[in-house]
């Protein structure tokens, strides 16, 4: 076995008593959702900041986390061994992760910066979904920087090392993978398994930290394709990718219906201001309407939350850095894009009703539908106390409320763009089939009907 040197931890430089997070998030009792440490609902509302540890100073990290906390985000996805040449290109303080790669010898100065940001996030009540490494360090592929440094032996010991370093953190979720799907006839699955086992070997019994896997786009399953029955995988994650014209609710629904039951969510959807399908010349850039539709679809289909991403922010783009796939503006400016400030409306809506008893209901909308941007989707309480129907383009549809209690219902419209609620003024809604017409129609005219 290769030598693997461990460096003694120094005391962190941020006061650990400041944060309000009392423990890691958990799987809910019904295994469908996530919960706070005390058992109350936790709606995963994440931002994608892959290069946070690699490309920000402490002052910049504070600016970023303060902004996202104010916008309602409670999770930030970031990578310890970053995508953009994270092994050889130094961080903002001139430090790289390792003194040597073979054997892996840790550079304590680099990891102190990671420590600082994780603790800083806790003071903002933000959980860090921490990728121990980007996937190109296992499988470089045509677009990765690499180098491929992990094998079955050192993956376990790296997992054990990084797992021990952060075993007592209250605001952590482990995310294996990193934009790579395990290859057939390769050792990739075993390498990720060994890294997960190393992390688990260092876990503290009183502080269980959840683990998942971040894949590339893959249909119909995401992480479930390879790891669903693995004991180390606590919940499933998808990357639905960067095209606007996908029926992402089908992808979430696939994992929702698997056995054993595990929560599922979209960990990388279409980013804001991202070239559609990586083809800006012909397809232009993403817009808030498409991003919002994907997010509501996913959650109504049974997702335990939703990740947001901005193309400039994930790479912490500045004008003096080489751009990746055409970011439109520096990351600090992009923090205030429309969807970054609209994500909270989705979280607030889902937390406004009984949370753990919510189920998707594809049968509630009885009108004929095809899988396009007009697809209307419903979710409801399993006890029949409420339903919510999402109209992505304001299409008029027939809805069947037979699963709800009582003979007549009160209803309100919810504006996903603003969070404003106003009364439904149509005909009285009653048990059985009803024709529902949204307040307006067309692209970007999406609405949620809340029925109690």
UniProtKB/TrEMBL annotation:
The UniProt record lists the Putative collagen-binding domain at 359-452
Entry-linked SUPFAM superfamilies: (Trans)glycosidases
The Apiosidase-like catalytic domain, residue ranges: 28-356
Concerning Pfam families, the annotation shows:
Apiosidase, Collagen_bind_2
The question of whether Kinase is a record keyword is answered with no
**InterPro entries attached to this UniProt entry:** Apiosidase-like_cat_dom, Collagen-bd_put, GH
Keyword annotations from UniProtKB, A to Z = Hydrolase
Asked if Nucleotide-binding is a keyword of the record, the answer is: no
Which Gene Ontology terms cover its molecular function? hydrolase activity
Quote the protein name from its UniProt record: Glycoside hydrolase family 140 protein
Origin organism of this chain? Shivajiella indica
Taxonomic classification: Bacteria, Pseudomonadati, Bacteroidota, Cytophagia, Cytophagales
